[in-house]
Amino acid sequence: MVAAFVLRRLGAGILLLLTLSFLVFCLLALSPGTPLQALLGTRPASPELVDSLNARYHLNDPFLVQYGRWLAGVCALDFGQSISVQSDAPVGQILSERMALTLQLGGYALVLILLVGIPLGMLAGIRRGRRTDRAISAGATVAISAPAFVLAIVLLYVFGVALKWFPVYGTGTGFAERVSHLTLPAVALATVLSGILVRQTRAAMLTAMSQDYITFARLRGLSPGRVLVRYALRNAALPVVTSLGLILVAALTSTLFIEQVFSLPGIGTLLLAAVTNNDVPVVQGAVLVLGASVILTNLAVDLLGLALDPRTRFAVKDGA
Amino acid sequence: MTGIQRQSAAPLLSVRDLRVKTRQGRILLNGTSFDLRAGEVLGIVGESGSGKTMTARALARALADGVSAEGEVVFDGTSLLDVSERELRPLRGSRIAMVLQDPFTALNPLQTVREHLRESLGPAVRRNKAEARSEVERRLAEVGLAAEVADRYPFQLSGGMRQRVAIATALAQDPTFLIADEPTTALDATTQAQVLELLRKLQRDRGMALILITHDLRVAFSVCDRIMVMYAGTVLEHAPTEQLARRPRHPYSLGLMLAEPPVNRYQERLVSVPGNVPPAHSVTQTCAFADRCQWRRDACISGPPPLAEVSPPGAVVEHHSACVRAADLSDEMDAAIRSRSTTADEPPVRGLGAPLLQVRALSKTFRTASLTGRRKENVALADVTFEIAEGESLGLLGETGSGKTTTARCVLGLSTPTSGAIELDGFDISDYRRLSREQRARVRRLVQVVFQDPYASLNPSMTIETALGEAITAGGAGVHGAPGTVAELLDLVGLPQIHARRHPSALSGGERQRVAIARALAVRPKLLICDEPVAALDVSVQAQILELLRDIRTRYGTSMLFITHDLSVVRQMTDRTLVLKDGTIVEAGDTAQLLDAPQHPYTRSLVASVPGPRAATADTTSKDVSREPSRKA
Predict the structure, then answer these.
(1) Which of B46, B83, B269, B310 could form an S-S bond across to B87 if both were Cys, CB 3.0 to 4.6 Å?
(2) How far is residue B60's CA from residue A135's CA, in Å, rounded to a whole number?
(3) Would you list the DSSP string of B415-459?
């Protein structure tokens, strides 16, 4: 039953990716500049050279044929060769290198978001209206209001340049060094999003705490710990998980800025470079990878919701 | 006035001058005192704003944030208001328990019934797995539920089953004192009777003290030893049940009893208490009921009247009333109560016109699908056929899920029937989508609706004037015979003109329902659908609204489709009645005949489940409670 659900969602996801890749292909075709210009670079555009490049990269084929050729390749897990970003390197290989770094950055940020956002949000929810709550809520508002790229520059200057606690540039080798290199970008990425998560968790907690079942549990003399964990937390978890899905997707877009500011060779910088240089196969590949991660994130969130809430397993829709 | 029982053994619970205030100092509950002995059942009866729930919550130390209680509450030697939550916890569940009103929100949606029960058991039982298991089953059996219910989640159970589970968990440690706050209000009539029966049985078997909070005097009469009548944060009368039922000594208690529309006969003039319940803080220095009392004298408003003894000589249990004129009025009040049970009016015979609404073989199936792809078809209506003549009022009687609201939605075009035909005044309205724009506008002027909840059916951001004006414009100006202005509409439903400039939030529930009725009447419909129009209103206001609807029918000859679960409303408001169960009509006929001599077993069980003195023809075979339908998905 759950397997059928997953299959159905994956099927829908593949359709979505297909549409996405086609739309991006169209956009690239419509945008000014051609791959040819990028390929030529500073070389003189002699007819022989143009012809050979056109023939090699099938640049003269009709639009749909080009898309079809790309799609056929993808189906055989061949994403083609990069045109200009890393000339002739297989796109699959570039993507997996770049994606690894982005995933590390995202994972690091996610850990920070969860560690900061959920406990603080819960605390604020439980101590509603008290000083703790007001301090946390004010902090969350400030965090949400700080644009990630501005924050990134401030962090870079204060902790990288002035205090020299963290490296300013590069990715480091080995685990410890990688962590230290990714700390500032991860913090920059996590700040806004953990502010959002604090608010979501607080609201979910407030809703849960005001429910009749909490009152009824207290009236039956259940231990405060049980009421907090089994009643308040479990019920608050559902809306938090849902918002977490949105937060993760937002994190993906933010990485574009963050990688740029910290010059990290992740998928974000790759995508930017590929778009500027009209490197169609790389753009297509990166879009595919990013799109797939959004779809998988949402699927994971839904599965988590199914696991958490028995009601969603039997949820009823009015199909009038 | 302290010891209500003369030969007073030490009471289990003693309450002295209990007050509840908001943080800003506004009074919500105005000095309540009473005693409760072990094994005794006290009913607290009152309308919304009376302070009955405040009293219950104060006793259970479950008041909302920002509201606090003062006074003296001694339970078995412990002063409940003075101990900390930590000190109170050992008493909770094991000595004092409470059942809440709404069984749909009282259970943790993520936990099975078994987990609810197990966590509520005493620590010794809870730790032994095998013992806990058998104990859970025993507790379920005690409240009339089968053992397999243990592994279901709350959402898979019906309201009645959930309330049974809630009662079982509240009583899991065998407390000596239970507070039940409107435990049956959210339930269907037949379920309500079963749950009340269960509570009564559990109380008797255990010799448990019980405080039953209810707005329904009939419920209190059927269960309690003593009854306290509350109004606007004040106790107005406190009497043994028999005494209160036969010889009320406060005009408000009398008014409540008279306002209850009778179920066993038609009453030509429905009595209501004029006006609305005042807020508690506004009546601390006067008789709380003075403003609405027909017997008011200056003495009533010169100071708060004391709760004084009015017992007949030689009575075992004291009777207290807070009416300073209780003695002078006793004969008048007794006469009013007596006359109530003797008058039986003939329902008016109205000449009926041609059929206005014809519903033929109406069926509606809802298709449902879960996230994981289980599909289910849910038949809401199956082959329902009926007619309403011009000027006729038809009752649609049924419980939750019987399809009565679906029927109304189909007639209104809010739902499209799966099959069947609906014809209204010559228009085929089976599918509103097939009507032309012009036809649809005309049909909308033919049929209008008044919903159950006047709090949700008015736009809170619109003044009454705007809301009514909009309805007049939408109806198209100059509809034949329609009231043309907001002022006329307000007049029609008996509201002062000053309300035109107010927002719904400034109005009471009854006043809002009047506005909703005025809005429906703006287009002068031929058919008015009333979907439980008084179910959300207080008893003393219900009769006002019912009278208003009767008046409209007499004046305009409007046909009515009256949807309700309440047999007395059907009796008072309709000529014919259909009984719906699970989407089919199980019985139909003349209202008086149907209620006096019900034929179908289901109709008989409905008639039997009216609380209090049973209707004469009631078939009281008790139903097997475990057969109540569940909502297993």
Answers:
(1) B83
(2) 33
(3) S--SEEEEEETTEE-S-GGGS-HHHHHHHHHHEEEE-S-TTTSS-
3-state SS assignment for residue A79: coil
* CA distances from residue B532 to A222, B80, B313, B554 in whole angstroms, order as listed: 39, 41, 45, 20
Contact B37, B16 (CB under 8 A): no
Listed in sequence order, the residues at least 6 apart from A162 whose beta carbon sits closer than 8 Å to its beta carbon are none
Over residues B517-532, the mean pLDDT reads: 91
Q: How many percent of chain A have pLDDT more than 90? A: 29
Q: How far is CA A63 from CA A32, A36, A75, B224, B306, in A?
A: 15, 15, 19, 84, 93
User: Could you tell me if B168 lies within 8 Å of chain A, comparing CB atoms?
Assistant: no
The CATH architecture assigned to B418-527+534-560 reads 3-Layer(aba) Sandwich (3.40)
Query: Is B107 at the interface with chain A, CB within 8 A?
Result: yes
Fold match between domain B13-95+175-342 and domain B418-527+534-560: yes
Mutate to test the interface with B, among A240, A316, A317, A318 (most CBs of B within 10 A): A316
- The domain made up of B13-95+175-342 is a member of CATH 3.40.190.290: no
Task: Report the chain B residue with the minimal C-alpha distance to residue A7.
Answer: B372
Q: Is B66 on the interface with A (CB under 8 A)?
A: no
Q: What does the alpha-carbon distance between residue A286 and residue A150 come to, in Å, rounded to a whole number?
A: 26
Give the gap in angstroms from C-alpha A125 to the nearest C-alpha of chain B. Answer: 14
pLDDT digits (tens, 9 = 90+) for B564-607: 988 999 999 999 999 999 899 999 999 999 999 999 999 999 99
Task: Test B105 with A212 for CB contact under 8 angstroms.
Answer: yes
CB A59 within 8 A of CB A35: yes
Q: Is A218 helix (H, G, I), strand (E, B) or coil?
A: helix
Q: Of B60, B371, B633, which has the smallest distance from its Cβ to A219's Cβ? A: B60
Which residue, chain included where needed, has tokens 């101990």?
B83
Q: Residue B626: what pLDDT?
A: 37
Q: In terms of CATH architecture, what is A91-313?
A: Orthogonal Bundle (1.10)
Q: At what angle do helices A280-308 and A63-75 cross, to 10 degrees?
A: 50
Give contacts of A221 with chain B, Cβ < 8 Å.
Answer: 89-94, 173
Specify the 3-state DSSP secondary structure of A82. coil
pTM: 0.81
